[in-house]
């Protein structure tokens, strides 16, 4: 590669962020770390910065500014703090690409800021498209910004679409592992614990997405994410449970042909593809062996026991700010489940309640999304207390 891509990682200390840095370690000729950010993990942010020597770092928690400044100022690394700094740092002239690996609604504003500044996006933060997909895709089109998916399913679809630009998609099929509770019915799900929900069979991820995977909300969010990334109608998006997580997703074209992308479950691959696109960079990661997987199996999801997937489809069909309401309610639900304040099934009750109670808006602006997120969080908190 002639020019190294200069990249900002928002959320460098998380599961996606740290795996992205492993990709940088493998490809020092292709990528350069320009910006690193974290919310609270100052120790790791400092360690990462000492290794990768970014131009600027942002620590979200302003109380930790002094610690980070004292460690990094001698290395000539600029240190900023606070939420506004996140939105400003992505405007830096040198940046070619911003990897959004923050979790939740907090990713929306800095992503908008990056798009406004004309930076291409490698999008891990799916909540951004769930909350404001119409707005984000419109802004990206106006600014000529590409959004490269990092989510493994969407990366699979994106890879299947290479060379197919003029061929309409009949439908896509998103695969879901089914999570730790696959096959369980409502009565069993009532008893499950936080510790069980935090043990995902195939992927090591941050706490929020791990709970979302156990409840199938992750797949619901991914259905909405897919709609915006690939300009699909709701009826064109299907979900199939595939417990081995080898087939990462599929596209069916008008001739009935299905294309799938496969590989071992390893987020470094979709991260690297999003950062390196259109090139496929060589990697030494373990290869898939057919003999290790004599059977790849597929089954229907169980919407009766896992209600979140149905709620997400409902939100998508309703449109407007309903996916924003779904997302805010889910963030409150997961947070309270992780604090042992509500049970596993009550998460769906809470989301359903918020979708019925929060004010609906057909064509929300950014300010409407902010208001809707806040209103929903209040309704959700009231429901719990
Ligand atoms: P994580 O919790 O491991 O890491 C989150 C990162 O964001 C951390 O660096 C944290 O410091 C930062 N952060 C958290 N809250 C913040 C806030 N309010 N402001 C600024 N920074 C904040 O999460 P993760 O598992 O890496 O997931 C990140 C995103 O990627 C999520 O949207 C998730 O759905 C998506 N994703 C993750 C995986 C995965 O394998 N982990 C796979 C697909 C998609
Ligand atoms: Mg995924």
Description:
- There is one protein chain.
- The chain is of the alpha/beta class and 385 residues long.
- It has helices at residues 15-26, 42-52, 65-72, 83-89, 108-116, 126-143, 152-160, 186-189, 194-197, 207-215, 217-230, 268-276, 307-318, 322-338, 346-357, 366-384, and strands at 5-10, 31-38, 56-59, 78-81, 97-100, 120-123, 147-149, 169-176, 237-241, 247-253, 258-262.
- The strands form two sheets. It has a seven-stranded parallel beta sheet with strand order 4-3-2-1-5-6-7, sandwiched between helices. The protein has a four-stranded mixed beta sheet with strand order 9-8-10-11, covered by helices on one side.
- The N and C termini lie far apart (56 Å).
- The model has no long low-confidence stretch (mean pLDDT 97).
- The site of nicotinamide-adenine-dinucleotide has 26 residues, from helix 1 and helix 6.
- The gyration radius over C-alpha positions equals 20 Å
Report the sheet with the most strands, covering strand number, pairing sense and barrel closure: 7 strands, parallel
Mean pLDDT: 97
SSE succession: EHEHEHEHEHEHEHEHHHHEEEHHHHH
Residues in helices, as a percent range: 40-55%
Model regions low in confidence, pLDDT < 50 over at least 5 residues: none
Q: How does the overall form come out from the CA principal axes? A: globular
Report, as a whole number of angstroms, the end-to-end distance: 56 Å
> Which range does the strand content fall in?
15-25%
Bound molecules: nicotinamide-adenine-dinucleotide, magnesium ion
